[in-house]
Amino acid sequence: MNTESPPQARAPEAALVLFSGGQDSTTCLAWALDRYETVETVGFDYGQRHHVELTCRDNVLAEVRQHFPSWGKRLSDDHRIDLGYLSALGETAMTHDVAIEMNEAELPNTFVPGRNLAFLNAAGALAYRRGIKILVGGMCETDYSGYPDCRRTTIDAQETALSLGMDRPMHIETPLMHLDKAATWALAQELGGSALTDLIIEHTHTCYRGDREHRHEWGYGCGDCPACDLRSSGYGRFVEAA
Ligand code: ZN
Questions:
Q1: How remote is the CA of residue 98 from the centroid of ligand 1, in Å?
Q2: Ligand 1 centre from 132 Cα, in Å?
Q3: Tens digits of per-residue pLDDT, 73-108?
Q4: Architecture field, domain 11-241
């Protein structure tokens, strides 16, 4: 069932969503489509080990256009930016074939230093060119408190830096910042009903290992990497509470 909000609830501005094709950024995309008149998307190729998420993002955009016609009308251009230099800066479990483990600073080695800052910087520059003042990102400090560039204090500083550096107000919306994964599933349900949660299960990608072979009730993945753990336990709590 499609539970899109009535048009009068929508702000007239345009927004640019940092969209990876994962559960979080797909929920952010729905949140933005529910709220803004025009929504553009941007994805980054940073030499990630698994290109599967870049394929998933094309599929998610096509599915949104097909199953949510009033959102589809507001869904505008998609942009892809090459940030391949991130993988040249050093090995992490996201860009090289090494095991996922914790480093000496208690950060998982899936952490790519400066990645979110680079994403926001590139997205801010693109938004400037497109005349857009609102960025939307799925950064969250609840589940990934180990990622310092996902914390709201970092985002606030980046918002200030972009606004000063481009001499134009730039806002960074982070609708998932204080939600856990169960609440993120619930937000998707609230925004687009089971049509949206079904789309997220079938077409978004979260697994750190790039596994698209094993299908679970919460979607595809290896089932035991940290990203699959979060997604599956969040889904379990979401279903229990429903
Ligand atoms: Zn996995």
A1: 14
A2: 35
A3: 999 999 999 998 887 776 655 555 555 556 555 566
A4: 3-Layer(aba) Sandwich (3.40)
